[in-house]
Structures are given as C-alpha cells and as structure tokens.
Amino acid sequence: MKFSAAAAKTKSEHLRRIPPFKRAEAVGGSGRATGSTFRLGSADVLTGAAAIAVAFLALCALVPGWIAPYSPTEMNTAAILQAPSAPHPFGTDYFGRDVFSLIVYGTRDSLLIGASSVLVGVLIGGALGSLAGYVGGRLDTIIMRFMDILLTVPGILLALTIAAALGPGLRNIVLAIAISSVPGYARVMRGQIMGIRRRGYVFASRALGAKPSSILLKHVLPNSAAPLLVMATLGLGSSILAGAGLSFLGLGVLKEIPDWGALLSQGRGYLTVAWWICTFPGLAITLFVLSVNLIGDRWRDAVDPKRKGRA
C-alpha cells in the first residue's frame, strides 16, 4: 500500500509539470479520442443537414404545389423585376413571376434529369463492366477499349455533342448524360467483379456445379454493388450540373416551366439589374450538389473504412 501511494504521488507530481494541452496524451490518449469524437460529430451534423436539404428538394419535386406560394405561370405586371421582399422572398422576374415558385417547380425536371441519367448510366455501365470482368478474354478487351475511347473525350463535351446531335428534349438529354457516364461505372464494376470472382466461395460454387449465370447473380453481383452505388450517389451531383449546363445552352427540356439551368439562361441578361433571377437558381444547384456529395462521401467512408484512414 505504501508503495502504491508513493507511486501515485510521484505520477501526480509528474502530471502537474506537463503542460495542460499534453496531459490527456500522457494519461492515455484520451485527447485523441476526444478529437476523433468531435470530428465524427461534425461530420454527422453536416451529413444530417445535407440529408435535410436533399429531402426538402425531393419534396419540392414531388409536391411543388404544397411549397410554392404562387403558380409558376402567374404573371404580375405590377411586380416586374421586384427585389426580394416578404411577398416574394426570391424576388420576381421580367414577367412578374415569383422566382421562388419557379425554382420549386423547376426542381422536378432538374432532379428527374439527374436521377434518370444516373440510373441509365449505372444499368448500362454495370452490365458492360460485369460482362467484361466476369467473362474476360476478347470480350473484356473489346468492351474496355471502347470505354477507353469514350474516356478520351471529357464527359460534359461528350454529353454536349450527343445532345446537340439528338436535339433538345428530356429523353435526349438523359441519354446524352448517361452515355457520358457509362465508362466510369463500367470500369468500377469490372474491377469489383475481377476481384470477387477469385474468392473462395465463387470457386466452391463452381465445384458444386452451379451455373455461371447463377454464380454471377447470387454471389458476384450482390458483393460488387456497394462501390457502384456509392459512385452513383456521387455522380448524381455531376449529372445535375451537366443537365443544368445543357439546359443553359438551350439543349434541355423545352417546357413552359423552366428547370434550374433554363432559369439561369433566362436571367443572365438581367444580371446587372436583377441579380436575384440568376443567383437563387444557382444557389439551388450548389446546395443540391454539395448535399449529395456530402452524403456520398459519408456513405463511401461507411462502405470502405480504410479509405477514411488513408485520407
């Protein structure tokens, strides 16, 4: 007991001589744990805020009439180019239409373009990558060389070329953006398939006489899907940006209710006298892209914890 008391007293005197900001490390690394907990909490707050923003924008796309205070086609000649105010928090445009209502109603087409192009790109790219990685051989060479050719052209330039050739319209713009994203999804899926097809349970299934198609559907694809879905989440923001860019150039959906890119295009001529017409649609695009990227980064860390450690 005397020895323990003396040791405790010596340790206490030693700790008092250590600067306060280093005492936690001397005690046992609790300072590092506290820092990690703080960083984790900050990431959770950002991810939660991003999820709320995405949920709100999704609600705008599904039920815009519940959120928008005015009809997007309602014109008020007495409130043309009115600055942001209580009746019109985002101001009005050159027809007296409420900009906030236009953004809310334009959310549907903007998100539809982004989500549809990602879905089509994942389906086509995932299928091609699965065939290349699982079958291998000459088919793998042909598919991946074609993907390499597409990768030599920047994605937005490829989408612009395809959209210009096909013409404006929802189907054409979705197809243009989807084709430009196929090589990335195909390469990711091929890499996953090539790694998983060498696993022990795949060899065991082959030894038991399972058909190649059964092995692919039951074992290989389910264990390869997570990275592809994470990439699709991160690609949603890029698809929204690409869709807005094509709409800005007049290659988007030609409708009475414009999407976010068309709103930017229509308001650029009034930027010096009515800055709000361009600013708020641009902020809506920025908010959605940042929110989706935050959620995608968080999901990627959850799927691959080692990546977070390397970062």
TrEMBL record:
<dbReference type="InterPro" id="IPR035906">
    <property type="entry name" value="MetI-like_sf"/>
</dbReference>
<dbReference type="InterPro" id="IPR000515">
    <property type="entry name" value="MetI-like"/>
</dbReference>
<feature type="transmembrane region" description="Helical">
    <location>
        <begin position="45"/>
        <end position="67"/>
    </location>
</feature>
<feature type="domain" description="ABC transmembrane type-1">
    <location>
        <begin position="107"/>
        <end position="296"/>
    </location>
</feature>
<comment type="similarity">
    <text>Belongs to the binding-protein-dependent transport system permease family.</text>
</comment>
<feature type="transmembrane region" description="Helical">
    <location>
        <begin position="146"/>
        <end position="166"/>
    </location>
</feature>
<feature type="transmembrane region" description="Helical">
    <location>
        <begin position="228"/>
        <end position="253"/>
    </location>
</feature>
<keyword id="KW-0813">Transport</keyword>
<dbReference type="Pfam" id="PF00528">
    <property type="entry name" value="BPD_transp_1"/>
</dbReference>
<dbReference type="GO" id="GO:0005886">
    <property type="term" value="C:plasma membrane"/>
</dbReference>
<protein>
    <submittedName>
        <fullName>ABC transporter permease</fullName>
    </submittedName>
</protein>
<feature type="transmembrane region" description="Helical">
    <location>
        <begin position="111"/>
        <end position="134"/>
    </location>
</feature>
<keyword id="KW-0812">Transmembrane</keyword>
<keyword id="KW-0472">Membrane</keyword>
<feature type="transmembrane region" description="Helical">
    <location>
        <begin position="273"/>
        <end position="296"/>
    </location>
</feature>
<keyword id="KW-1003">Cell membrane</keyword>
<dbReference type="GO" id="GO:0055085">
    <property type="term" value="P:transmembrane transport"/>
</dbReference>
<feature type="transmembrane region" description="Helical">
    <location>
        <begin position="172"/>
        <end position="189"/>
    </location>
</feature>
<dbReference type="InterPro" id="IPR050366">
    <property type="entry name" value="BP-dependent_transpt_permease"/>
</dbReference>
<keyword id="KW-1133">Transmembrane helix</keyword>
